[in-house]
């Protein structure tokens, strides 16, 4: 029996870096693994600590997943009833966005934070491609920066073309295991290649037809960094939905809302929608809580309730 860390997942085979000797072994899984009784499209994720039984010198079988200190899951984009495990046992996450090329979808940031907040995983928000920003785009960046820094998230601006913000990003990544993610086309791979030149990740173009990014990463993989630490690179995300959340989960994952909820008439059970005596709605009206975040919250809440309603209806048929 040996132990190691999963550094690559391709769906059917997993690359495991062994603790003993740092060798990498290709492994399959034994039986079925589940997460809190919810079906997973990939039961073992990059970053997982596992026990394996060697089968020869280069292959083995994963027969046990060691306890996770945290994990990040999303709804599977192809199988809406299942979850997809993005990463496990991380120190932090970095989500990369851009104001233009492709255009910013503000709701994406809040959806990403909905995956990390339940495990209190620190997140840095990186606005990339700053060299393409007009004056209006720069104003959008500073407005977003103010919103998220106010509630405790770190926000950086980067440009590979102008070599700006790269040193700050290196400092964020140094010595930590980081989930690196973002929407397709935001320049994630180019950014990593710039701070770690020998780590040649595939870069993609923006579709001239749709203006959206094209997938370049096809599976999750962990890479060691020369300056210390590692990143878990994930496929570009086009959308995020949540089949594993209910309304209360969503409300509690907006950190400034949860902080104010003890001042609501109905306390932590308040959904901050139409309830009387809601401190969050009062704060939004007074401008002390972001109206953008609140609008995004209401949209996610409605989506989760609609989806869960139909899932419940299906279950009782």
Can you walk me through this structure?
It is a single chain. With 317 residues, this protein is an alpha/beta fold. It has three domains: 2-65, OB fold (Dihydrolipoamide Acetyltransferase, E2P), CATH 2.40.50.140; 79-233, Rossmann fold (3-Layer(aba) Sandwich); 247-316, Probable gtpase engc, domain 3 (Ribonucleotide Reductase Protein R1, domain 1), CATH 1.10.40. 28% of the residues lie in helices and 23% in strands. It contains eight helices and 13 strands. It has helices at 106-116, 135-150, 166-173, 188-195, 247-253, 255-260, 279-286, 291-316, and strands spanning 2-9, 14-18, 24-29, 49-55, 59-65, 71-75, 83-88, 92-97, 123-127, 154-157, 177-182, 221-224, 230-233. The strands form three sheets. The protein has a six-stranded mixed beta sheet, sandwiched between helices. Strands 1-2-3-5-4 form a five-stranded mixed β-barrel. Strand 8, helix 1 (106-116) and strand 9 form a beta-alpha-beta unit. Helix 1 packs across helix 8 (291-316). The longest helix is centred in the C-terminal third of the chain and has 26 residues, at 291-316. It is globular and about 65 Å long. Residues 203-217 and 312-317 have low confidence and may be disordered.
């Amino acid at each position: 029996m040996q132990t190691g860390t999963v550094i690559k997942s391709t769906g059917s085979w997993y690359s495991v870096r062994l603790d003993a000797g740092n060798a990498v072994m290709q492994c399959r899984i034994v039986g079925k693994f589940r997460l809190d009784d919810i079906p997973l499209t990939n039961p073992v994720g990059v970053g997982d600590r596992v026990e394996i039984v060697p089968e020869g010198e280069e292959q083995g079988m994963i027969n046990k997943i060691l306890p996770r200190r945290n994990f990040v899951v999303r709804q599977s984009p192809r199988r809406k009833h299942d979850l997809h495990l993005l990463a496990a046992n991380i120190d932090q996450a970095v989500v990369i966005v851009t104001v233009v090329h492709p255009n910013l979808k503000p709701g994406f940031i809040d959806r990403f934070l909905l995956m990390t907040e339940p495990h209190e995983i620190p997140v840095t928000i990186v606005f990339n491609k700053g060299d393409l920003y007009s004056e209006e785009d720069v104003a959008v960046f500073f407005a977003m920066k103010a919103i998220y820094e106010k509630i405790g998230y770190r926000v950086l601006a980067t440009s590979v073309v102008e070599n700006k913000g790269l040193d700050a990003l290196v400092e964020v990544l140094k010595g930590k295991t980081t989930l690196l993610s973002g929407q397709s086309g935001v320049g994630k791979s180019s950014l990593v290649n710039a701070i770690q030149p020998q780590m040649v990740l595939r870069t993609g173009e923006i579709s001239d037809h749709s203006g959206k990014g094209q997938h370049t990463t096809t599976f999750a993989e962990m890479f060691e960094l020369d300056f210390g630490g590692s990143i878990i690179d994930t496929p570009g995300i086009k959308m995020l939905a949540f089949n594993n959340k209910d309304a209360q989960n969503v409300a509690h994952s907006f950190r400034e809302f949860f902080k104010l909820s003890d001042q609501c008439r109905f306390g932590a059970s308040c959904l901050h929608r139409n309830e009387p005596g809601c401190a969050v709605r009062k704060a939004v009206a007074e401008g002390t809580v972001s109206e953008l975040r609140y609008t995004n919250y209401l949209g996610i809440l409605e989506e989760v309730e609609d989806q869960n309603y139909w899932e419940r209806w299906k279950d009782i048929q």
